[in-house]
Write a structure and sequence with these properties.
about 190 residues, mainly beta, five-stranded antiparallel sheet
């Protein structure tokens, strides 16, 4: 058993007869009244995200987890296939287990979280950012670098990202996997 002071991003807990992963949290100490922790929880079985508030000192049941590195092989409909980089065993996971499936490309190494008790895969953690090539976007116009205007672009995985006006087809860009936003042009 843990309590609210042990809450951190990525912690897996049992809550409402399901296993949830903490996506965001904020410790709040108002001037009047008791402290509490505001959290955003993502179900590892359904992918549903809920908001919840725990009062300070509340007991939470944490789930012991193990992390292993896996390489993404290919997608087949809603099923994504991964290979363990240590022993080459393969597993198949459903699309809802992935945080941002539209940003994963073949050969990408991800971290898969397993429940240590029954060895069931709980969720897939992407790297903080990925570098992808822009396959389609409107051409950039010289001098369009000073404004904050953006345009839609399609990357090699098929995802649509808003990028600055100076990005052209063939450019490689760095994308934040937590929210799917453009970060910067990739350095060659």
């Amino acid at each position: 058993m843990a309590n609210t002071s042990d809450i951190r991003k990525g912690l897996c807990i049992k809550y409402n007869n399901d296993i949830y992963k903490i996506v965001e949290f904020l410790h709040v100490k108002p001037g009047k009244g008791p402290a509490f922790v505001r959290t955003k929880l993502k179900s590892v079985t359904t992918g549903k995200v809920i908001d919840n508030t725990f009062s300070a000192g509340h007991k939470i049941e944490d789930v012991r987890v193990e992390t292993r590195s896996y390489q993404f092989l290919y997608a087949e409909g809603e099923t994504y296939h991964f290979m363990n980089t240590d022993d080459y065993n393969q597993i198949a996971l459903q699309k809802n287990n992935l945080d941002s499936p539209e940003l994963i490309k073949e050969g990408e190494v991800v971290t898969i979280i397993f429940n240590a008790e029954d060895n069931m895969p709980l969720s897939v953690e992407m790297p903080a950012s990925v570098v992808l090539e822009v396959t389609h976007t409107e051409p950039g116009v010289k001098g369009n670098t000073a404004t904050n205007a953006t345009k839609p672009a399609t990357v090699e995985t098929g995802a649509r990202i808003n990028v600055p006006l100076f990005i052209n087809e063939g450019d490689r860009i760095k994308i934040d996997t937590s929210n799917g936003s453009y970060q910067e042009r990739a350095k060659e």
